[in-house]
Amino acid sequence: MGEQLCSSRKGRLILTVCAAAAAGAAALWLYFHNPYEHPLPCIFYSVTGLYCPGCGAGRACYSILHGRFLDAFCYNPLMTILLPMIGLYIAARVVDWVVTGGNHIDRKINTKMLIGVLIVVILYGFLRNIPVFPFTLLAPGGFAQLL
């Protein structure tokens, strides 16, 4: 059944609309779910006491949904910078899949660039845990110290 659905353009469009509705519902939930009152737990932080590269992303997304981009940057600067690029990739990939049923986007992305982004994310994860200024700015809410 799933293969038949994915083999037609109409089926792929239906799946895309369903996925977009699910993403919209998740964004709507986050819009009304205040992570300042009810934080989204980070398992890595709970276990290690260290910030992962994604720590602060829930509060950052909440801030973006409310139009507070500076607050979002304060909670997770790297995610706030990478989010438009990730969104563009997802949009291009989805349009390509709906129209052609294939994947013509990934071949056009330079592997060195992906490795570079991965290195930046890992390095960011390490640097944001150094308890010395200016690295404390990378911790969730760190840039708020300057504002």
What does it look like?
The protein is mainly alpha-helical. It has one domain (2-145). The chain contains seven helices and no strands. It has helices at 2-7, 9-32, 43-48, 57-65, 69-75, 77-100, 111-127. α2 (9-32) packs antiparallel against α6.
**Beta strand count:** 0
Measured by DSSP, the beta-strand proportion falls in under 5%
Largest sheet: none
Give the termini distance in whole angstroms: 55 Å
User: Into how many domains do the coordinates divide?
Assistant: 1
Overall shape: it is globular
- What's the number of helices? 7
Helix % is 55-70%
Order of helices and strands: HHHHHHH
Oligomerization? single chain
Mean pLDDT: 89
Gyration radius, to the nearest Å? Answer: 18 Å
Structure classification: mainly alpha
The unreliable regions are none
Please describe the structure with a list of short key phrases separated by commas or semicolons:
globular, single chain, 147 residues, 63% helix, mainly alpha, 0% strand
List the helices and strands and how they pair.
Layout: H1 2-7, H2 9-32, H3 43-48, H4 57-65, H5 69-75, H6 77-100, H7 111-127
Helix pairs in contact: 2-6, 4-5, 5-6
